[in-house]
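Q: Given only this backbone (472 positions), what sequence would you predict?
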């Protein structure tokens, strides 16, 4: 029943702390929203790399007896979002190998647009792959490099990669992290002072991972930058000149937790402004503003504040849905949506309701939500979306449907309104979105709304085929 865009993972890395694996676990716990399929941690005690990964939620994968085996002061972790047809333990990260550079491990957030070409080249010269994830390509490039140092080999590998990546790399006694030259995916830096006065460093997809472990947000890994946390402290280098920034704007619309700082900006602040601008652009005469939880809440607060229409939690979300459930044999209409959302009838009955959501992808979930609100007694249902219409697939690490599945790519706003059954429908404009994230220097990627991709693709047909194979 899913009608949301999803990102495929979150990463975390810890250097210089005796409980590195425990801190990585807590960081992954805070990043659970970025992926619920699998979770993994690799730690190093300076002599050996210890790894554990399983399918499932972070808290279920890392039981106390498992964490106790992950010794050392250095660790990386990964939590992955599921895509149909690509669900197996062999694709769980981090990936670890023994090679001529020693024992190394990698975890990656994003999507390499030239992964298929690199993989074919490597297989032609004898490389054997264990998984279908493009992240494994990075390990092979490092292992095959003639550079003597890990940093040199990784630098050489990074120069071969195209597309989106925020990467965390574990060697015996150090962490190396890097972002692609466009900076598509986020990667934050944190500092953590230990009780003995020494300093530990942490890296994560979002700053909310730092809050849980008491680390201080210290900025971002820059696009095209490689940062090494090792015995000599923290060293930073620009491994390639940064290109025009193309930070994923959907991080601020939907992906990231509202309590995070992403790309140096408060996510909550962005979302409330999205709602305020939406109210200015698309006002409606109504009695109550109701968010689709949780992603619509901040924008609904902004819409309510700007319009003066009261905000109410008219839809309640269940947070305790397991990975499987038993559906009654007697089919219940809209069962999947009802399992997650339930209306508060007395807040909705007889009212003209503005429903605020972050996106409409296929339209099927929005249709069910509108029907649910009407069945709860609403006189009118007006849908407002806090970003522009999603018209193009993403090739930079977002699990979007193909173009023929995106309703806005194939139907007008009026046709979508009719399909979902709303009295009115409006999206935020591109200009409004730019203003909400204060993109005065054109540093965000809007390709999913415009079809204007910021990089040249090596092979668009191969990318589309790969997306179909992954079930996106």
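A: Predicted residues:
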């Amino acid at each position: 029943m899913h009608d949301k865009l999803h990102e495929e993972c979150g990463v975390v890395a810890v250097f210089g702390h005796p409980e590195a694996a425990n801190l990585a676990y807590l960081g992954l716990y805070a990043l659970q929203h970025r992926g619920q399929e699998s979770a993994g941690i690799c730690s190093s005690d300076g002599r050996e790399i210890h790894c554990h990964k399983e399918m499932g939620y972070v808290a279920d994968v890392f039981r106390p007896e498992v964490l106790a085996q992950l010794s050392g002061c250095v660790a990386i972790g990964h939590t992955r979002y599921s895509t149909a047809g690509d669900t197996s333990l062999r694709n769980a990260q981090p990936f670890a190998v023994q090679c001529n550079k020693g024992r190394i491990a990698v975890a990656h957030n994003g999507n390499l647009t030239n992964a298929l070409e690199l993989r074919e080249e490597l297989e032609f010269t004898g490389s054997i792959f264990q998984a279908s994830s493009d992240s494994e390509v990075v390990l092979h490039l490092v292992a095959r490099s003639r550079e003597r140092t890990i940093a040199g080999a990784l630098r050489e590998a990074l120069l071969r990669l195209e597309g989106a990546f925020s990467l965390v790399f574990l060697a015996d006694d150090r962490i190396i992290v890097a972002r692609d030259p466009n900076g598509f995916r986020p990667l934050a830096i944190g500092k953590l002072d230990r009780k003995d006065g020494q300093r530990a460093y942490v890296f994560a997809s979002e700053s909310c991972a730092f809050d849980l472990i008491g680390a201080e947000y210290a900025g971002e890994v820059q696009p095209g930058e490689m940062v090494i946390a090792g015995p000599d402290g923290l060293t930073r280098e620009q491994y390639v000149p940064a290109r025009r920034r193309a930070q994923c704007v959907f991080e601020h619309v939907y992906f990231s937790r509202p309590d995070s700082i992403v790309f140096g900006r408060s996510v909550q602040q962005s979302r409330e402004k999205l709602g305020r601008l939406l109210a200015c652009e698309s006002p409606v005469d109504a009695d109550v503003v109701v968010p689709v939880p949780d992603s619509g809440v901040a924008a609904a607060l902004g819409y309510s504040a700007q319009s003066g229409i009261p905000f109410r939690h008219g839809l309640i979300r269940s947070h305790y849905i397991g990975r499987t459930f038993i559906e009654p044999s007697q089919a219940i209409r809209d069962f999947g949506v009802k399992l997650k959302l339930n209306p508060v009838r007395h807040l909705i009955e007889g009212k003209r309701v503005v429903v605020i959501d972050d996106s409409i992808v296929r339209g099927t979930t929005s249709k069910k939500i509108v029907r649910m609100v009407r069945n709860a007694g609403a006189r009118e249902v007006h849908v407002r979306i806090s970003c522009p219409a999603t018209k193009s697939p993403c090739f930079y690490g977002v699990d979007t449907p193909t173009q023929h599945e995106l309703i806005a790519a194939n139907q007008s706003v009026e046709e979508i309104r009719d399909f979902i059954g709303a009295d009115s429908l409006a999206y935020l404009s591109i200009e409004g979105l730019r203003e909400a994230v204060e993109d005065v220097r054109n540093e965000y990627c809007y390709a999913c709304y415009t079809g204007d991709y910021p990089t040249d693709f090596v092979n668009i047909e191969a990318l589309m085929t790969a997306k179909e194979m992954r079930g996106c």
